[in-house]
Write a structure and sequence with these properties.
The protein is an alpha/beta fold. The protein contains 13 helices and 16 strands. It has helices spanning 20-24, 33-44, 57-61, 66-72, 104-116, 128-133, 158-167, 177-183, 197-210, 235-246, 263-268, 280-285, 297-305; strands at 15-18, 48-51, 79-81, 86-88, 96-99, 119-120, 138-139, 143-147, 151-153, 172-173, 188-193, 216-222, 225-230, 253-257, 271-275, 288-290. This is Haloacid dehalogenase-like hydrolase.
Length: 313
């Protein structure tokens, strides 16, 4: 068992929680050399770094090239993945401490609801040519479902492809997402909807009304990503669970993020930081604003609030 005991240090920060896309990663969805060296400096200072991301653990590690991995020396644990649906503990990448899954019944009803909403076929949609030959003009909403060991979708349009490019995780098209859910009982971690922002705003209202009496919630994890998660699933909730296990007080933590799904984590931590490119909700929840993700705002925050100097030579 790994124990992180309180050590006397000027900054008093023992743990750093960081969002990945839009925060730790740059706009090319990569880890910069400066941020990699910052992670290394954190590890050398015995400050725990916990990624808190919508990605899976595999998607997180794909952000690291071999050279960057050698510098950063971080292997994805402990970590908060799928926006809090999976918590990986400190004893290895397979140390699953807790999962928050959506009920199969709720997931199946969601699929049926979204299939009933009609959207005009676009040339970039997967299956467009086949639909055109059949004389079909409209389709259901494009969505993906993350299960513990599978990532599947119904239709991959341009926006869903964007989501996959962001996470570097690629789902498999299936004839029936419902059948996959039934096969993998009680393993549904999150539901991703990929359409235009305008359409997502409409869909969010419909889904929010549908979820009114169900143990699930809907939120934007990115301007073009709408997610449905278990009602108790959040980065903040997973972080609290981890901190209790490690005997670390939230006041001794720093959190940095950019999106709506980072708000609970920002409110939990003793020091909360938003990058300059963050949404208004994240900025409103943060005590401090640093440079954007493309200008190494993560490194700026660590140097400023953890009193760590980064050697860029």
């Amino acid at each position: 068992e790994v124990l992180y005991k309180q050590i006397i240090m000027e900054s008093n920060i023992l743990c750093v929680f960081t969002d990945v896309d839009g925060t730790l990663a740059n706009n090319e969805n990569q880890l910069s050399l400066k941020n990699a060296k910052t992670i290394s400096a954190l590890m050398d200072s015995h400050i725990l770094l916990v990624p808190a991301t919508g990605r899976s653990k595999v998607g997180f590690l794909r952000m690291f090239t071999e050279d960057i991995m050698d510098i950063a020396k971080h292997h994805g644990f402990p970590g908060i993945f799928f926006n809090g649906a999976v918590l990986i503990g400190p004893n290895g990448i397979d140390d699953i401490m807790k999962t928050w899954t959506i009920s199969d019944e709720c997931m199946i009803e969601l699929c049926n609801l979204l299939d009933s909403i009609k959207i005009e076929w676009q040339p970039e949609d997967e299956g467009y040519e086949e639909a055109k030959l059949k004389g079909e003009t409209h389709r259901g909403v494009a969505y993906s479902v993350y299960l513990l060991n599978e990532f599947v979708h119904n239709v991959r349009g341009s926006h869903l492809r964007y989501v996959e490019g962001l996470s570097r995780e690629f789902s498999v098209k299936v004839e029936s997402v419902v059948d996959v859910i039934k096969k993998n009982k009680n393993q549904s971690l999150k539901f991703i909807i990929g359409e235009s922002r305008e359409k997502l705003e409409e869909i969010k209202d419909i889904v929010h009304a549908f979820l009114k009496d169900k143990p699930a919630r809907v939120l934007f994890s990115h301007p073009l990503i709408l997610e449905i998660l278990h009602i108790d699933c959040s980065k903040g909730n997973a972080a609290e669970h981890l901190l209790k296990t490690l005997n670390i007080h939230p006041e001794n933590c720093l959190a940095i993020g950019d999106a709506e799904n980072d708000v609970e984590l920002l409110k939990l931590s003793g020091i909360s930081v938003a990058v300059a490119n963050a949404c208004n909700m994240a900025k409103g929840a943060a005590q401090h604003i640093v440079s954007s993700n493309d200008d190494d705002g993560f490194s700026e925050a660590i140097q400023k609030f953890c009193n760590i100097q980064i050697n860029l030579d």
